[in-house]
Amino acid sequence: MARADEADRLDPLKAFRERFALPEGVIYLDGNSLGVLPAGLSAHMKDVVEQQWGERLVRGWNDAGWIDLPARVAGKIARLVGAKKDSVAVGDSTTINVFKVLSAALSLRPDRRVILSDRNNFPTDLYVADGLARLLGQGYELKLATADEMEDAIDENVAAVLLTEVDYRTGRRYDMAAMTKHIHDKGALAIWDLCHSAGAFPVHLDAAGADFAIGCGYKYLNGGPGAPAFLYIAERHVAHVAPALSGWMGHQTPFAFTENYTPADGIARMMVGTPPILSMSSLDRALDAFDGVDMALVREKSQQLCDRFIAEVEQRCPELELATPRDHDQRGSQVSFRHPEGYAVMQALIANGVIGDFRAPDILRFGMTPLYLSHADIVTAAEILERVMRERLWDQEIYRKRAKVT
Ligand SMILES: Cc1ncc(COP(=O)(O)O)c(C=O)c1O
Ligand SMILES: Nc1c(O)cccc1C(=O)C[C@H](N)C(=O)O
């Protein structure tokens, strides 16, 4: 613990912990599923509800700037993902945004019929891709490959490659720039799911040459449960994209209420319906926790926390098998271990104050969020995990009973 304390003393990010309202007695290693509550956010929401909504009522759209809120939030996210402000739109869920960008990508490659994805991708991406292929008919199909097979699987029939940069189970990370280049060399378009990237480390969409991206607001961005998601379209494509979900909020003049649809000039065309102002306000306020944060430092500390956790757990719990790459370049900001009783182990760990999560079939998953985790937290979490394993605290019926949400 002495070395962890010394690392904390020297930690250039330690002051940022105050930007979060963390519950007592819990070490939270699940910011990759649901981010924590930022300090001051409750008061902000009280104001939004009571003053903006309660007092201003419908005038809030203009007086409180609600109508421009999605664009303001997009600007904050754009910085974190290495995009121009006008390349990002905020709204809907990641799932809906997968549909929106994938249909857009296919329309830009009308002569090709294959959507390629990773067979270990988060299921919603695969379900949507498959559903869209079935909806379009005409020979469209979803093909799957493993990460190791991916490069070879891209051929002249592939219109778009839909990849999640960081694997939600193992934390394995694609090299976005290199893979995007390879995809382009084959004439296809690259769509990146940044659910486990945005807010976790620096992302450079423009520099990597990405065509499209999507990501969620409630994990590392701390926007709150079900917070709005975002999408990205490279500047060079925006004007050529005809939105499949041609909603009135993406119209050039929504309040002209015209009979025919004309898309807005820029990225605003990807908006669909009325923005959810309460959750959008929450995300807006949450993003302020990144003000002045050097994401390169976040990455550096994230890797230190991952290394420390791996070393501590491997030494204390030999029965757990590391599922995350050891190489920094090949992983995101999480550490996963396998154990056949992973679900029960995680429930016992949670009952003892360390919150991670479980992903079927056997993954214990721990998210590293450098803005509010200390090196000492990591050692304490490993100590508690050691006790859960050594004393077989997990070996009880109550911990085997699966909850609806894991
Ligand atoms: C990689 C990835 N993509 C998509 C999603 C789904 O997003 P949503 O349920 O918010 O639409 C998640 C998590 O839920 C995810 O981890
Ligand atoms: N979106 C979630 C939900 O509504 C309930 C429970 C978990 C989630 C998640 O975000 C899961 C997450 N995408 C994952 O990586 O497993």
TrEMBL record:
A family per Pfam: KYNU_C
Residues modified as N6-(pyridoxal phosphate)lysine: 219
EC number assigned by the record: 3.7.1.3
Binding site for pyridoxal 5'-phosphate: 94-95, 122-125, 164, 193, 196, 218, 248, 274
GO MF annotations in UniProt: kynureninase activity
Record has Hydrolase as a keyword: yes
Keyword entries, A-Z: Hydrolase, Pyridine nucleotide biosynthesis, Pyridoxal phosphate
HAMAP family membership: Kynureninase (MF_01970)
Subunit comment: Homodimer.
Name of the protein: Kynureninase
Organism this protein belongs to: Nitratireductor aquimarinus
